[in-house]
Specification:
about 230 residues, alpha/beta, Rossmann fold, Arc Repressor Mutant, subunit A, five-stranded parallel beta sheet, four-stranded antiparallel beta sheet, 12 strands, elongated, Response regulator transcription factor, WalR-like
Amino acid sequence: MCAYVLVADDDHKNAELIKRYLDREGHDVKVVHDGRSAIDEVRSARPDLLVLDVMMPGVDGLDVCRILRRESDVPVLMLTARSTADDLLLGFDLGADDYVTKPYDPRELMARVRAILQRSRRTTSQAIQVGAIKIDPMRHEVHVGSKRIDCTPVEFKILATLAASPDRVFTRGQLLEQARGIDGFITERTVDVHVMNLRKKIEQTPRKPVYLVTVYGVGYKVTNGSR
């Protein structure tokens, strides 16, 4: 699974270590050492994954993630020495796909990289099956059992994002960032409206959903409907 991975880390030694491990995995790797260069490279080259250090001078990793999520769905794996719940939630709210806290085992980092790339490629090309729900990104189609469901572009993006990582809870902010490139006027409140509309289309009893489930106080997830 060769991919183009961009590493943004102002610590040259750490960046080179990450590059060596990614090289061993067969990836094409580019390293930059500041946030502005990371933004420019994502815009021009569209990498498959951005490995992004939080603590960088000037434009830090959080600002990079915030800026890119307005215009790109590139997967982002953040590296940070901050490990409090608030710090992690902030990164996820800004659109990070995963977090690795320092110090870390490079083998764990590579495992996280593989998982993100697999999820990303499943979301963008391969059909996704969760329980009776089947999502085909290439054809932009959704089926529940044998029934085809018509979804708006924003509904499709939200459902595909959730279904690509079954049982993972996404905050409204994360879903908002995923859909913002489709609808620049979407808000966290309208995310709830889109979820409500999706339930009307995919659930047998929308008021008692078994596929698109609310995790109270956090956000939403998609399950296989077996509960």
